[in-house]
User: What shape does this take?
Amino acid sequence: MHMAAPQAAIITLIFVMKVIAKYFKVFAAFLILAALIYGGYLLLHGADLAMPALFKPVPGARLLMSMEGFRFAQSENGRVSWRMNARSANLYASKEAQLKDIEIVFITPEKKEAALMGEVGIMDTFTGDASVHRGSREVRVVTSDGYLLTTDSLMWKASDRLVLTPDPFKLLGSEIYLEGRGLTANFDMRMIVVNNNVKAVLQE
Assistant: This one.
């Protein structure tokens, strides 16, 4: 059975129209995509594009970890010569530790102790050097011999066993009251050098 010529022509025309419609959709999608790309180019051309924070390198030192209950100690000849405790610490790849609620305890061979206390500080975990600064309370050093030193900041030089401050300070002991600006002292307050404005009162 042969199909009539008009029917064959209609079927062919429908097939051609479907093919044209299919390619038209693809072409239209391509035009829309091209228009979006070109529009984005016009919108952003000459703009200072900021890289998303997720892909930006972190400025400064790289944070390795944050922890609670940080402890650090140094020993000499099998004896702990000083130890440091902090409520929390951020440890960086640069060997720096940022600390909160710090206590550094110095211990002499004769078992005498002195404790340096402050709210915030920074410690070099390679050398053991630290700087401690006041928050709501002053930085304090309390010794087992009864000395109390108060000031706004103290630096601890681990290799020399010295505390230093450029700030005004007050030192109270059982036999002396001392104040001034700028101080260098060994940790048990037996050797003290005052830079400026020294005032000393001997107490009976």
The first helix runs from residue 5 to 44.
